[in-house]
Design goal:
170 residues, 3-stranded antiparallel β-sheet, 6 helices
Length: 170
């Protein structure tokens, strides 16, 4: 069991020993800094956020170039209202369109436009370069493989764990 000698006010997390806490904090800091770095680069270069690129990529990978907005929100791990605002902003840039679903009148489809595909292709290059420079390029091939496998295990556990603790946020 982890080190339970945490002193209040020291930032120690009960239940985690020093190595576990350091590993978690390093992972969290690296993730947040990497996200912020990639996001800043995409906004400065393409006027698209990292989440915009992810959303456009979801639509681009769809066989019909469109998805139900609720499904997009699920895939982005985002709130439907946040995705609605994001789609509205991308629609104003003529990168996506919205339309009622022909199969379900209650659902709304988001569709990537030709302009959206063109902007995505440009942004994906910048995104890939940023991932290589700031993530893959900082690790050896075995470290990249291990990181990928460890993250896959965490994702798999979170996808099957029905407990409220899996939704905890820091």
């Amino acid at each position: 069991m982890g080190d339970m000698t945490a002193t209040p006010g020291t930032g120690a997390m009960p239940g985690l020993d020093a190595a576990e806490q350091r590993a978690w904090q390093n992972f969290l800091d690296a993730s947040l800094r990497l996200y912020a770095t990639l996001n800043r680069s995409l906004v400065e270069t393409h006027q698209l956020t990292l989440n915009d690129v992810r959303l456009l990529d979801i639509l681009d990978r769809s066989p019909a170039g469109c998805e139900r907005m609720g499904d997009v929100a699920d895939e982005l791990l985002s709130l439907p209202s946040r995705v609605t605002r994001q789609i509205h902003r991308l629609e104003s840039q003529q990168l996506v369109t919205r339309s009622p679903s022909p199969d379900d009148g209650r659902a709304v489809l988001a569709t990537i436009t030709p302009s959206g595909r063109a902007r995505l292709r440009e942004a994906i290059e910048t995104y890939g370069e940023g991932v290589r420079a700031n993530f893959v390029g900082k690790l050896s091939k075995p470290q990249v493989v291990a990181m990928g496998e460890n993250c896959r295990r965490i994702i798999a556990a979170l996808q099957t764990d029905p407990s409220p603790a899996r939704l905890g946020r820091v």
